Amino acid sequence: MKNTYVLHFDQSNYDQPIVYRLIRDYDLVFNILKAVILPKQESYLVMEISGAKEQLEKGLSYLLDQGVRVDPINKSVRRNEEKCAHCGACTAICPTGALAVERPDMVVVFSPEKCSVCGLCVTACPFRAMEVSF
Fold this sequence. Notes:
By secondary structure, the chain is α+β, with helices and mostly antiparallel strands. It has helices at 18-26, 53-65, 89-93, 120-124; strands at 2-9, 29-36, 43-50, 69-72, 76-79, 99-102, 107-110, 130-133. It has 2 domains: 2-72, ACT domain (Alpha-Beta Plaits, 2-Layer Sandwich); 76-133, Alpha-Beta Plaits (2-Layer Sandwich), CATH 3.30.70.20.
């Protein structure tokens, strides 16, 4: 089972080995998609977490017990083909390779199965062709 979550940390838990415990104690695998960690300030991680369903549920309970707010990402990114000019601005910022320039035609190809829904492409697109849907 694999899901994507935003983990919000506060001043009391931002410096704890919480993610390490997910691996060691709950046998979960994670992929950090985006992170903003600031000393003594609210911080967050966008992570794909995968593992056995029971272990994932236990790991999420552990996070809540540690004061971590867990928000599942229940949204997706789509491209509005009518607005897209295939300029490639989004491809430079996409951390997962979901957006790529296909050669020799030089068109931007969107692979939604690779998308982590980080939203960086939405702000990078000058034509607002990338949209987040909930």
